[in-house]
Amino acid sequence: MTPKNQKPQKPTIRFSMYWMYAIVIICLVGLLYMDDTSMSKEVSYTEFEQYVGSGGVTKIVVERGTNEAEAFLNDSLAAKVFAGQFKKDSGVKVAVSATIPSADKLQEMVDQCRADGSFKGNVEFRNSSNFSGMLWTFGPVILLIVFWFVMMRRMSGGGSGGSGGVFNVGKSKAKIFDKDGDIQVTFKDVAGLSEAKTEIEEIVEFLKNPQRYTNLGGKIPKGALLVGPPGTGKTLLAKAVAGEANVPFFSMSGSDFVEMFVGVGASRVRDLFRQAKEKAPCIVFIDEIDAVGRARGRNPNMGANDERENTLNQLLTEMDGFGTNSGVIILAATNRADILDKALLRAGRFDRQIYVDLPDLNDRVAIFNVHLRNIKTDDSVDVDLLARQTPGFSGADIANVCNEAALIAARHNHPSVTRQDFIDAVDRIIGGLEKRSKITTEEEKKAIAIHEAGHATISWHLRYANPLIKVTIVPRGKALGAAWYLPEERQITPSQAILDEMCSTLGGRAAEELFLGRISTGAANDLERVTKQAYAMVVYYGMSEKLPNLCYYDSTGQDYGFSKPYSDDRAKLIDEEVSRIINEQYERAKSILREHAEGHARLAETLITREVIFTEDVEHIFGKRPWVSRTDEILAAKETTALPAPPAGTSSEDPKDTSGDSQDTPGDSGNRNGELPPPFKGLPESSSPQS
To answer: What 3 state SS string does 596-653 have?
Structure first.
């Protein structure tokens, strides 16, 4: 049974070169079996009569339709007729053929020869036509013509639905989804992203009910650009638009325009918009538009023709040129809006730039609920806790967590997915698989425990440090130890919070120096993160005493060319300030550890014994933490009073930073794209031997 809203697919026969190979093989085999190794010669009817009368003919075959007769000769007569060619006892059949006046005349001649005893063989009459001869004559030519015709259709794309082929290389590769429900994704499947969905839904509503807006003098938006980090749901939003709009939907990738042939990209752009105008009103979606929309003139190619720039110029002309594209809405998605050409971003081409940020706490709860619809869970699963344990996770990351939890539950033969399965899935994704088989000596195990206990001790006694969840010294991924924290939901980050994070991150190295009397390479990842944080405080956030209120970060993405935006003297001062900040926090970490040396020792001993400790264990040693989680305060306040949503444009979540000794990295409320400056982009997570 075919689903109601799904078109029955017509069976298609596709051409394959294997067909031609099979035909050639069949012909060769046929020729092999049809070749009877015979010798034949055309003679006159008089000679034919003489051969029959000589007594050397064994059989006569007469074709009534063509009035041709064939006489098979014995060896003695064959040796005379084919002198020098025929060899006796070779097994080759020898015959002579001639055109006879009529079958009756031949029968009279045969009867006379039988009467005098010169012919004792049989006469066989056959009814045949010239068709077989014509087939053997013209068949190969016809086969060659058919082969050429099929190949030309295949090259021009006629045999493959109009896609591909030399003659069709300039045609658009866009996939067309019509109104009949080819895509089943709707806005109900898009959790979170409330602001982005509101703007997208307005475009869909305009296509469904344009009079509601045109009566007031409004015009349909010409385009909307979806911008955001990878995995946040930009393409999913476009699929929801295709499922909700009930109009033709063209979908293609930016790389589909690019080809090795000159002029192909521009030709495909023209063909795409030609098809879109024919089906207007419709939506055209270009995914990863940065593949073709990169700013012009960035990488000059020594005067040669730049196919990508020609494609971009044609795209700019089609989107808002002299031609009209009434009823055609352009949707595009990219995670690199800073490198797009300014002409592409102007109003009239992309009237709206919709920012699809990483989901905040409430959005993550909604996303978890969407992905848990098809997963069998038990009552122990706490969605709110899962959402708090996954800060900085995108929608794709959350989907991966849910799937990984189901796989872990199936691996352990659980009847349903439990809370522990989800915790193991988060640990697996962030830190990697546990490597209990990795060989570590008792001395190394003690050093790792002291290192991790140093992080846990300092984070417990600092106000802005994130609450601890779990600490382990079991090797996981590349790290020999790891600590999990519960980062706070912050829109802006005060300077003291950054300093507390740096102090907590340096706690591992400080504990090694204090309690082991030596340091190791285990703090490599910690030092890298702290150096970048200190550099950001000085160069980007203007939080330095000697260099206040200065920012050398270019949010436009243009950077400063090959030269630094400051002098060598200023660079020296920046280095001094970075070193001062790090040294101060390192001494602060050692001071806290000296004050709580006894508790640190008990914590390290517990780690060595049990390998894993949780919040309850740290609370049992140091007592209850004097500071309440800021996120808990916000959630409690929202339950009593409805607080307004944070203003648009503020950064939501910081990059995923819950593995190793990761702390919440400071947000950047002034960044145009809601992203962190370069020092905080792509921070390695537990990439050092010991973190």
So the answer is: CHHHHHHHHHHHHHHCEEEHHHHHHHHCCCCCCCHHHHHHHHHHHCCCCCCCCCCCCC
For residue 650, give the nearest of 680, 673, 682, 678 by alpha carbon: 673
Cross-strand partners of 548: 543
396 CB-contact burial (10 Å; exposed 0-12 / middle 13-18 / buried 19+): middle
pLDDT digits (tens, 9 = 90+) for 300-333: 554 445 677 888 888 888 887 666 667 788 889 9
User: What is the total residue count of the chain?
Assistant: 691
Closest C-alpha to 340, from 305, 299, 297, 289: 289
**Which residue would you say has higher pLDDT here, 414 or 181?**
414
Helix (H) / strand (E) containing 331: strand 328-334
pLDDT above 50: residue 487:
yes
**Looking at residue 667, what is its pLDDT?**
34
pLDDT over threshold 80, residue 560? no
Which of 70, 404, 452, 675 is catalytic? The answer is 452
User: Tokens at residue 522, please?
Assistant: 């285990």
The answer to whether 453 touches 603, Cβ cutoff 8 Å, is yes
Exposed e or buried b per residue across 64-78, where buried means at least 16 C-beta atoms within 10 angstroms of its C-beta: eeeebbbbbbeeebb
452 is catalytic: yes
Using DSSP bridges, classify how beta strands 282-287 and 249-253 pair: parallel, antiparallel or unpaired: parallel
> pTM for this one?
0.61
Q: What pLDDT, on the 0 to 100 scale, is given for residue 167?
A: 47
Beta-bridged to residue 41, according to DSSP, are 96
